């Protein structure tokens, strides 16, 4: 039982990233009808927002430290971060330590702007074009964003450590009545799962309980009728594109301490996230979230020693096998809407 619970936790960890990216993909497809292959790149940009803020806060200048001496007894020249000089050593060090969570404050406006510019400057010209054209142009945009990141940050992964308060692991087994050290799990991964649940719940609450969200949901069902009521649905959909970009960016920010960001991490998650969307059902927000967590758990279970020994390589193909089975039995996906991509 403890091994099963551990695999479920591992699955919820990666499934959280799948669910957040797939949620943004579905928001864009459901509102604009656009297959956005640049969405994984937005996840990557969010992760590098954390790297950018970390480096910005760590910007330092040279000072003479009277408390440190060289072998001749002369004071040493050391690098002191500006943030510690402005706010004091303790507060400054604490701000640097919390750079990843603080990057959320930077990521939200940055991703909203990027989403708005993408939609207004490029995506809107492809609304009535075939999905193949949309895939090609957004995939090209993803490559451009990827190469920009590679130019400024290089090809190697860059570590973005979590705050010291969340380092280490917690013994969940003891809390659940198991033996000590039966289920030991990294604290930050639990934080990421909780963060994902909050973001997902926030998006659904926004769509369900606000007037703006209700109009958007109505526009997703019948865009022309909503427009005939005098509502500028295009403007609202543009805002939703920005929100979807922000969701992907936030997913990337908080994932940075789990997997050191690199310039191709967006592509690594993109294909799997599209499989998640298809399994959940194109245009279905609940389906995207459900499929994200479900496939994350299945992938984790397939990565166990027993599974990989029994069927070598099963962990690499399990998601695609599940997708084939689901689509053969339910062509619209688990919770797909009738008429979506069926013309």
UniProtKB/TrEMBL annotation:
Bilayer disposition of the protein: Multi-pass membrane protein
GO molecular function, one term: transmembrane transporter activity
Principal subcellular localisation of the protein: membrane
CC annotations in GO: plasma membrane
Regions that span the bilayer: 15-35, 42-64, 95-114, 191-216, 236-257, 269-298, 310-328
Subcellular location field: Cell membrane
Similarity-based family: Belongs to the binding-protein-dependent transport system permease family. LivHM subfamily.
Record-given protein name: Amino acid/amide ABC transporter membrane protein 1 (HAAT family)
Protein source organism: Silicimonas algicola
């Amino acid at each position: 039982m403890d091994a099963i619970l551990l695999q479920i936790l591992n699955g919820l960890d990666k499934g959280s990233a799948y669910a957040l990216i797939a949620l943004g993909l579905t928001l864009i497809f459901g509102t604009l009808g656009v297959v956005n292959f640049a969405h994984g790149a937005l996840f990557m940009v969010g992760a590098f927002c954390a790297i950018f803020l970390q480096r910005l806060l760590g910007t330092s200048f040279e000072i003479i430290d009277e408390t440190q001496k060289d072998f001749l007894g002369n004071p040493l020249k050391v690098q002191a971060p500006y943030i510690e000089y402005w706010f004091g050593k303790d507060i400054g060090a604490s701000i640097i330590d919390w750079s990843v969570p603080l990057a959320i404050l930077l990521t939200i406006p940055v991703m909203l702007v990027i989403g708005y510019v993408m939609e207004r400057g490029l995506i809107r010209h492809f609304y009535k074009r075939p999905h193949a054209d949309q895939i090609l142009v957004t995939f090209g945009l993803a490559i451009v964003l990827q190469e920009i990141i590679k130019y400024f940050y290089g090809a190697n992964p860059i570590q973005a450590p979590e705050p010291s308060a969340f380092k280490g692991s917690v013994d969940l087994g003891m809390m659940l009545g198991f033996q000590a050290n039966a289920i030991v799990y990294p604290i930050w991964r639990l934080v990421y799962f909780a963060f994902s649940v909050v973001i997902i719940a926030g998006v659904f609450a926004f769509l369900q309980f606000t007037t703006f969200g209700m109009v958007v949901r109505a526009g997703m069902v019948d865009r022309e009728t909503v427009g005939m009521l005098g509502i500028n649905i295009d403007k609202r959909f543009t805002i939703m594109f920005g929100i979807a970009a922000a969701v992907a960016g936030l997913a990337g920010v908080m994932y940075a301490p789990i997997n050191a960001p690199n310039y191709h991490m967006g592509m690594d998650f993109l294909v799997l996230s599209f499989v998640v969307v298809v399994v959940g059902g194109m245009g279905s927000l609940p389906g995207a979230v459900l499929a994200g967590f479900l496939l994350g758990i299945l992938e984790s279970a397939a990565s166990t020693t027993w599974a990989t020994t029994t069927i070598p390589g099963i962990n690499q193909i399990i998601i695609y096998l599940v997708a084939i089975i689901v689509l053969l039995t339910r062509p619209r996906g688990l919770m797909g809407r009738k008429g979506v991509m069926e013309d």
